[in-house]
Amino acid sequence: MLREQLERVAFDDVDLAGKRLLIFVVAYNAETTIEKVLSRIPASLLCDEVEVLIIDDSSKDDTFAKGLRYQRRNCEFKITVLRTPENQGYGGNQKLGYRYAIDNGFDIVALIHGDGQYAPEKLPELLRPLLRAEADAVLGSRMIDKRAARRGGMPFYKWIGNQILTAFQNRILGTRLSEFHSGYRLYSTKALTQIPFERNTNDFHFDTEIIIQLALKRLRIVELAIPTFYGDEICYVNGLKYAWNIFKSTIRARLCRLHLFYDQKFDVQSVEEVYDLKLDFPSSHTAAIAAAKPGGKILDVGCGQGRVAAELTRKGCRVTGMDRHIPAPSRAPQDVDFIRWDL
């Protein structure tokens, strides 16, 4: 019955509306399942705007070879198969995939697992809130219908632990999610660029830390129900260690919000683009200006809005300013060349 329902969902038409989608498959020791998972990606997603990225995290089996074999035999999607030279961990593997999505101009990245625990057939349904601009992140939740999670084979201790941890996190963070612990996620790459996900752990609680960042940034999170499936896959998660890490990350995030603790990963506020010029007292600004020689060529790294650069041009210097946040042309100081660059 479940299989028939998934097959019907898989044939739903999907209009990506010109957006580019990366289907990102994290894989570790998944030689027995990776090809089947790839074959279940809905045919309705066959188009030039879709790419499948498989990152094998230094598996000890033939996961990488099986991925390459599927790539050679199938041309429906553009498929890229990569392998890490050293194991990066579950979170570290995700960082690589999300950075790939951002750097290669994708609009949406969908995370699925190479072990088959999450149904690729649900991708069209999970995509819709992002395509309609109704969400910045979509989480596939097994716990919207808790009884269905048990029917799908979720072990009792995980079923109880999931609810306890989620209730704790909702209470501490002020969220109302049905679960924090599903690995089926879709993100807008625009949202990913607004949070420091690369500062997160490389371990399994990466999934929790990225949800915390999204919540702190007040980005829109939508949950949709997904089926639960537990098969013969090997679980590499140490339950007690995972729960302790979840507890620590959640408490740290709460303390950061209360300004009682600081952790860079939970500092999601916008970068300050404007700073005051400090010329009325000894400062780094006065030192830089005093050290500059008239006629000299100067690269002002981290120039902001170019206020120091403008002072340097008044001394006859030729200045190039470099920053992620450079001034708009209408506001830029004259005689300063600006380069936009993320330092």
What is the secondary structure topology, with strand pairs?
Layout: H1 2-10, E1 21-27, H2 34-39, E2 50-56, H3 63-73, E3 78-83, H4 89-103, E4 108-113, H5 123-131, E5 137-141, H6 146-151, H7 156-173, E6 185-188, H8 189-192, H9 206-216, E7 221-225, H10 239-257, H11 284-291, E8 297-301, H12 307-314, E9 318-323, E10 336-340
Parallel strand pairs: 1-2, 1-4, 2-3, 5-7, 8-9, 9-10
Antiparallel strand pairs: 4-6, 5-6
Structure commentary:
By secondary structure, this protein is α/β, with parallel strands linked by helices. It folds into two domains: 2-266, Spore Coat Polysaccharide Biosynthesis Protein SpsA, Chain A; 284-340, Vaccinia Virus protein VP39 (Rossmann fold, 3-Layer(aba) Sandwich). It has helices at residues 2-10, 34-39, 63-73, 89-103, 123-131, 146-151, 156-173, 189-192, 206-216, 239-257, 284-291, 307-314; strands at 21-27, 50-56, 78-83, 108-113, 137-141, 185-188, 221-225, 297-301, 318-323, 336-340. Strand 8, helix 12 (307-314) and strand 9 form a beta-alpha-beta unit. Helix 7 packs parallel to helix 10 (239-257). The longest helix has 19 residues, at 239-257.
Shape: globular
**What strand line-up does the widest sheet have?**
3-2-1-4-6-5-7
Whole-number average pLDDT? 91
Total beta strands: 10
Share of residues in helices: 25-40%
Q: Calculate the terminal CA-CA distance, rounded to whole Å.
A: 53 Å
Low-confidence stretches: 1-5
Rg, Cα atoms, Å: 24 Å
- Overall tally of structural domains: 2
Structural class, from secondary structure content? alpha/beta
